[in-house]
Amino acid sequence: MIILVVNAGSSSLKYQLIDMQDESVIAKGNCDRIGIDGHLSHKTAAGVSVEEDCPFPTHKEAFERLVKALTEGEGAVISSMDAISAVGHRVVQGAEVFTKTTMVTDEVIQKIDDLKELAPVHNHGHALALWACQKIMPNVPQVVVFDTAFHQTIPQKAYMYGFPYEDYEKYHVRKYGFHGTSHRFVTARLAEVMGRDLKDMKVVSCHLGNGSSITAVQNGQSVDTTMGFTPLDGVLMGTRCGAVDPSAVTYVASKHNFTEAEMDTYMNKKSGMLGISGKSSDFRDITAASESGDMRAKLAKDILVYDIKKDIGAYAAAMNGLDAVIFTGGIGENAPNCREEVCENMEFLGIKIDKQANDFKGELRKISTPDSKVEVWVIPTNEELLIARDTLKMIQK
Ligand code: ADP
Q1: Which of 170, 329, 306, 181 is nearest to 235 (CA)?
Q2: How many Cβ atoms are within 10 Å of 302's Cβ, its own excluded?
Q3: Which one of the listed residues 19, 22, 82, 147 is annotated catalytic?
Q4: What 3-state class would DSSP assign to 95?
Q5: Is residue 56 scored above 90 in pLDDT?
Q6: Which of 122, 179, 283, 358 to mutate to test the pocket of ligand 1 (most atoms within 8 A of CB)?
Q7: Atom of ligand 1 at shortest distance to CA of 273?
Q8: Mean pLDDT, range 96-111, rounded to an integer
Q9: Are 385 and 22 a contacting pair, CB within 8 Å?
Q10: pLDDT, mean over the chain
Q11: CA of 136 to the centre of ligand 1 (A)
C-alpha cells in the first residue's frame, strides 16, 4: 500500500511517497515558490535527484508537476498515480471544528478554508492543495490530519485566555496549540521504547525547531501546551518572540507607528533568537557565536534554555509528577548543548542527564543517568509517517 503525504503551505507543496509495508520513503520533494515563479526538487530513495525551474502560477500546476515527477522521467518511482491508495494532508488549524483525523469531502475543504482567519499563513494554502488534489486524483481517498487536533483534550481552564468570555464564544479566541502530530508521534514512540503504557505516564515533550513548543502529555492526552491561539506564543523561537506581556505589543506598535501587519511581521519574523542576537535565527549560528564570546547570541540561547526549563517545571506541577522528558525537532534532536543546559540543575525534579550519553545528534537515545527518576529521551520526530499511518487507518475503516 502506497500513501502520498502532502504538506502544503501558501507558496510551497512538500510531499513524501511512503510504502506502508515497511514504512519506507520511496521519494520526496518540494514544489516551491508557488505563485512567484516555481521550482521543483525531487529525490528518490535510490538517490536520483531532479531539480527544475517550472512555472507554478497556482497549487494546481505544482500538483500536476509532482504527479509527473513521481510517474515520468528519471525520478519516476511508480508507473501511474493508480499505485497510490490514498493521500494524507497536513493541516495546521482545525480549531474546535476538527478534533480528529478526517476524510476529505468538499464540505471539509470549505471548512478548512473558512478557518483561514485563525491561520492566515497556512489554511488557505492547505485548501488550495486539497482542491488541486481532488481535481487531479478524483478517485483517490484523501485524509486530513490536523496539528491542533491532539491538543483538543486540553481542559478549558488551560485553554482560556483572561478576555471577556463572550469573545471566546464569538471569535473563538483561545489556546489551540500546534505541533500536535509531532508531540503525538514522539510520545507514542517513547511508550514503545520504555515498554510502558502511555495511559499511565506523565510526559513533557519539547519540540524545538525554528518554531518550538512544549507539551504536557498525561495518560496519552495533551493537557497543556505552550503555543496558543497562533504558533507565536510560548518559548523564544528562531524569529518569533514567544510569550510577552500583551501591553508591550500595543506599546511597541505605537512607538514604531506600526500597522497590525507590520507588528505581526515584527513579532513573527524579526524577533526571537534573531531579534535578540541581531545575527541569526539558526541555533547552530547562535551556539557558534555564543562560544566565541558574542554576549547577545549567548543571551538568546540562555533565554531559550530558561523558557524550556520553566515550562518543564510548570507542567510537572500541573500533572503532579513527571515520568519522562522528550527532546525532538531540529534543535532537540541535534543540539546536545541545549539539552544539557535545559537539564542542568534539575535534580530537585528528578532529572539527571548523562553528559557523555547526551553527546550525539539525530538518533533515538536515552540521555538520563540510570538513577535519574525522570527518564530523558531524544526521539527524532516523523510527522509525515504519522500522517501516513493515520491515513491508512482511515481508509481501512
Ligand atoms: P522547523 O521548525 O522549520 O521544522 P527544524 O525542526 O528543522 O525546523 O529545526 C531547525 C532548527 O534546528 C534550527 O535552529 C537549526 O539551527 C537547528 N539545528 C539543525 N541541525 C542542528 C545541529 N546539528 N546542531 C544544532 N542545531 C541544529
Answers
A1: 306
A2: 15
A3: 147
A4: coil
A5: yes
A6: 283
A7: 14
A8: 96
A9: no
A10: 96
A11: 34
Nearest residue to 133 via CA among 40, 307, 287, 6: 6
Where does the pLDDT of residue 116 fall: very low under 50, low under 70, confident under 90, or very high at 90 and above?
Answer: confident
Is 147 in the active site? yes
Banded model confidence at residue 120, pLDDT cuts 50, 70, 90: confident
Give me the pLDDT at residue 122, please: 86
CA–CA dist 43, 34 (Å, integer) = 19
Torsional class of 156: left (φ above 0), alpha (ψ -120 to 50), beta (otherwise): alpha
**Cα 116 to Cα 106: distance, rounded to the nearest angstrom:** 16
How far apart are the C-alpha atoms of 119 and 243, rounded to whole Å? Answer: 18
In this structure, what C-alpha cell is assigned to residue 358? 547526551
> Residue 144: which of 92, 222, 81 has the closest Cα?
92
How long is the chain? 397
Give the residue-averaged pLDDT of 35-41: 95
CA distance 213 to 240: 12
